[in-house]
Structures are given as C-alpha cells and as structure tokens.
Amino acid sequence: MMQGIIDLHHDIFFFLILILVFVSRILVRALWHFHYKKNPIPQRIVHGTTIEILRTIFPSIIPMFIAIPSFALLYSMDEVVVDPAITIKAIGHQWYRTYEYSDYNSSDEQSLTFDSYTIPEDDLELGQSRLLEVDNRVVVPAKTHLRILVTSADVPHSWAVPSLGVKCDAVPGRLNQISISVQREGVYYGQCSEICGTNHAFSIVVEAVPRKDYGSRVSNQLIPQSGEA
Amino acid sequence: MADIDLKTAPADFRFPTTNQTRHCFTRYIEFHRCIAAKGEESGDCEKFAKYYRSLCPGEWVDKWNEQRESGNFPGPL
C-alpha cells in the first residue's frame, strides 16, 4: 500500500514538473521579448483559434491522467485481496491504546492484551523521542498481511502511522479494518490524528520483526506483561 | 510455543468494506446458533469461536455474554 502511494506521488510529480517548466518558460520568454525598451509598442492580438483550442484541451486532459491512477489506488486500498495472517485489535482510550492479539485464544478470556502508554517526558532515556516512545510496542511480523481492527472505547480516536501509509479513525461502537503489510523490519511511529482531548498527542509505535522471530516475541514478551496487568 | 501458526479469521466476501462491525457480530451469532443446533460437544463450532474472538474486541464479547445470560441479547440466536 505504501509503495502504491509513493508510486502515485512520482506519477503526479512527472506532470507537476512538466507544467512548471512550461509555465516558467512562457513567463520568462514573455518578460524577455516584451520588455518595454526592446518592444515599446505592444502587439494587439485579440484572438487566436489554435491557441484557444490548445489551452483548453491540454489542461483538461492532464487532470484525467492524474485522476486515473489516483482513483485506481484509492479503490484498491480498500480491497482485501488475500486472507490476512494475523488480526490485531487497536482500541483507543483516553489516553492510551489497548492492543488485543486474540488469534490464539481458546476461550473468551483475553490472553494477549496489553496497554500502550506514551512515556512521560521525565522518564525518557537518552536517545528516545519525546512524545513518541511508548512502554509496550505493537509487535508485528514483517512481510506478512496484517488486519488491524481499529475501534475506540470512549471518544473518537485515530490510528495513524504515516510510514506505513495508514490512517484510520477509531469510532466507538464500530470496527474499522485496515490491511497493512510492513515491508521492512524496524520501528514505525505514529500519533493520534483525531482531536481526542488533553493528551491527544499520544503515540503509536509499531515494531516489525522478522516473521521467524514473531512467535517467540509474542509468546515471551507479551504474555508475561499481560500476566502482570 | 516458539512456532505459532499464523492464522486468523479469513476475509469474508459478505463484508468487503472497511466497516467490519457486522462481521464480528455475525460470527458471534453464527457460533451460538451452531452451538444451539449441534450442541456443545460437536467440534464443528470451534472455528466460529476462533473467528469471533479474532474479530471482536473483548469488551464487546463480555457485554454480549452478559446479555445472553440475562436474556436481552439484541440479536437472532
């Protein structure tokens, strides 16, 4: 999905630069040739059929070339083509997130649930980003199709991670689905994107680990933490 | 449990949109209808249970379980 967004940006930039070069050329040329010292008596052209047609046709074709890939991407982003491998529920609260990994539950008792709080400014260690680090990161496998179900328990929140091309509103009583596939291992940061109160800037941290390490990360790291809570 | 099987509720063509609220609710109802039809012992219903546990927030499931017990569950069981 993120790759699609980057590709669309490059597509649009082709037209953008084309237009910029063309308009700059016209502008500079006009300033140069019609300088009052060089050309004291201005020409008086009031009509030109050819140029009228050209400057109507081209500006209407260019937005079409931009719209086609744009709509194709827009609609393909909603579609879930393959069955996801894991489902993670992100539940927004004022002001923390609860993450539920329930694919391995054998009863209605939640086994893999943890809260993710933003680390307060005073507790930051050297090298950590202010208002971005959390105590419990969301661990996901890389190069795997993920289903994130976003909802909220109080006011509308949002689950946004710009590097993954994801922004999804969290509405109480409604489950919003987004499918993502993290292409590279690493730590991805995001913040709430829906005004939700005092600590609106609370953060979201996704940590992508290699698929082979995911099992041990989930069973070793997350289960003890939820056991303490 | 280092090697866990990565498996979850599949994409359902009945719910192709972003809004998956009904998906979760339907799976929950399907499980309880299955139990009602086949009985607790039959293992056929376990997959529906896995689906709704994957899809529904725990808080919702708790609330619905309570409502079923007190007989005011707002769905066709």
CATH class of the largest domain in chain A: Mainly Beta
* Percentage of residues in DSSP E strands of chain A: 25-35%
Sheet bearing the most strands of chain B, described? none
CATH homologous superfamily annotation of the domain at 21-70 in chain B: Cytochrome c oxidase, subunit VIb
Amount of helix of chain B: 40-55%
Alpha-beta classification of chain A = alpha+beta
Count of individual beta strands of chain B: 0
Corresponding CATH architecture of the domain at 21-70 in chain B: Orthogonal Bundle
SS strand fraction of chain B: under 5%
Largest interface: chains, residues each: A-B, 38 and 29 residues
Return the average pLDDT of chain B rounded to an integer. Answer: 85
Output the radius of gyration of chain A.
Answer: 26 Å
What is the spatial order of strands in the main beta sheet of chain A?
3-2-1-5-8
**What best-fitting shape of chain B do the alpha-carbon axes yield?**
globular
Q: How far apart are the termini of chain A?
A: 35 Å
Quaternary organization: heterodimer
Query: Structural class of the secondary elements of chain B?
Result: mainly alpha
Order of helices and strands of chain B: HHH
CATH architectural group of the largest domain in chain A: Sandwich
Report the principal-axis shape of chain A. Answer: elongated
Transmembrane segments (chain A): 12-32, 53-75
Protein name (chain A): Cytochrome c oxidase subunit 2
Membrane topology (chain A): Multi-pass membrane protein
Domain Cytochrome oxidase subunit II transmembrane region profile (chain A): 1-81
